[in-house]
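Inverse folding, one chain.
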């Protein structure tokens, strides 16, 4: 197992955001994390990315507790939820993908990544002029140049059209087939059903974690989950 989370509990002053959450991710897995607004997905991501170290429980990446060393961060890539650059941000797509790389970066490899993500024709454009879906693919490229073993992605909630979303999904599938482990939070149950081989349903506690086939073939479980999510949703609004 390359990710082992055990008894993870996160408290904010007024609220228990994660309550005794435990799950593991194996090498090559494609995990879909689903949950309504306020379920604790961002809190979980913050912990995994080392941004929130005030948690109870253990969180191990590649066998080591992440509080002890930040080295694991070099082996994971993160794609944020809504990366929006202001329109005139003075950097091209290629600049953004190159950010953080040394002078000796392999231009051929970067071109390959831009092509795989269907953004090679946009390489010279200003990042802020791109659509949400295109910017999202730039962020995936930026993560891939570091050759990550695990890719963590927060699915955009708004601003991405159907076509870009489908392209995004086919790219995720391809990356997973290449051997990259994927941890992906999504609002799209159908897409999780189609893409992920494991699913974690989060709603402060883990409502379900296991093979996605087991979850989606159990109509009662899916219905129970959807109802619980809707109720939670209504509380929020
Ligand atoms: P999600 O990403 O699933 O929408 P979050 O992790 O953002 O869920 O939020 C989980 C709960 O914790 C929510 O009730 C939210 O209001 C609360 N919360 C999130 N971040 C903070 C914070 N920094 N301080 C206090 N409460 C927070």
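Residues assigned per position:
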């Amino acid at each position: 197992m390359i990710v082992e989370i055990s008894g993870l509990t996160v408290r904010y002053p007024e609220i228990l955001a994660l309550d005794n959450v435990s799950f593991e991710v194996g090498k090559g897995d494609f995990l879909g994390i689903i949950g309504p607004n306020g379920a604790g997905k961002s809190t979980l991501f913050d912990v995994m990315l080392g941004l929130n170290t005030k948690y109870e429980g253990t969180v191990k990446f590649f066998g080591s507790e992440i509080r002890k060393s930040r080295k694991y961060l070099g082996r994971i890539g993160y794609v944020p939820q809504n990366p929006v650059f202001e329109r005139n941000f003075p950097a091209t797509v290629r600049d953004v993908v190159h950010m953080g790389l040394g002078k000796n970066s392999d231009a051929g490899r970067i071109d390959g990544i831009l092509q795989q993500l269907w953004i090679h024709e946009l390489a010279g454009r200003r990042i802020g002029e791109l659509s949400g879906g295109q910017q999202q693919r730039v962020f995936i490229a930026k993560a891939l140049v570091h050759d990550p073993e695990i890719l963590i992605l927060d699915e955009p909630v708004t601003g991405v059209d159907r076509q870009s979303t489908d392209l995004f999904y086919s790219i995720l599938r391809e990356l997973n087939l290449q051997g990259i482990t994927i941890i992906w939070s999504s609002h799209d149950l159908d897409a999780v059903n189609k893409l992920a081989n494991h699913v974690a349903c989060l709603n402060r506690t883990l409502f379900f974690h296991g093979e996605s086939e087991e979850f989606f073939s159990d109509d009662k479980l899916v219905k129970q989950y959807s109802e619980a999510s809707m109720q939670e949703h209504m509380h929020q609004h």
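Residues 12, 15, 17, 35, 37-43 surround adenosine-5'-diphosphate (CB under 6 Å). The mean pLDDT is 91.
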